[in-house]
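Quick question, first post here. What does this chain look like in 3D?
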Amino acid sequence: MRTTKLLATAGLLGASALTALLGAGTAFAGSGDSGSSGDDKAPTEAGTSFRTAQEVKQGQQATAGASTGDYLYWSFPADAGQRPTVKATVKLPDSAARPSGATWRIDVYDGLRRRQSCMYGTQSRATAPDATSVGLSCTLRTVRAWSEQWANDPLPGTYYVRLTAATLTPSDQGLPVSAEVEVTSKDVGGSSAVDGTLAAPLVPGSTTKEAAAASDDGSDEENGSSAGQALATGEPEDGWPSGWWSDRWVWTAAGGILAALAGIGGYALTRGTGRPSRVPPGM
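> Answer (accepted):
Ran it through. Tokens below.
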């Protein structure tokens, strides 16, 4: 009877501790949500290079009008534990002026401008003669908090999306099109956690941003505009936690608690009830 009560008490305590840990993990995960607020307006144009890429937050749908042959650039932030998916839709002109046989393509680059491979998705697609739009998608590998210098793993920081028509005939050049781009992420969690973090996210101009902001020289408007675009950080709304927290902490603590309970239960079951009353104390 005593053993049963002890095991029941230990089980209740373990269940309470596990529930508290899981609740804490959910709260931490919720605080790092990458969705954009309703007050932010999505960009309605695209950049023409890495330096002029338009910043778009995850969950927003950016739009832009362009011509076939243009290179369109957007940028977005991605942090450790996220698996970003980029979706793009190109709306073609009417049938009389529709590009014939054009192949559209999206490419994603990290903060070091290294092209990142897609896990899955339709990264390039040729337009059919009767198509009115072209849909493209690219799901990246999970962003890691740290990686070896020789590896090409996705790391926390700014990512660039480039959309363009890879193949065009001379008659297709300059035709009007419209593009839509949206970036979403799946929080993979502790399954992709690593032992290490970057000193700083891979954000262009992050080391000189404070110096540029403190500068009082506003005489050259052209240089100021160029520097402002070059130093764009695209920081998430909740900052860069960069993988310091993951649900691996929760399951590690839960495993420790369950191991302790198993030890207590095993001891209670095997220790017996003490010395039998029929055995003399001296034996």
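The first strand starts at residue 54 and ends at 55.
The CA atoms of residues 56 and 76 lie 5 Å apart.
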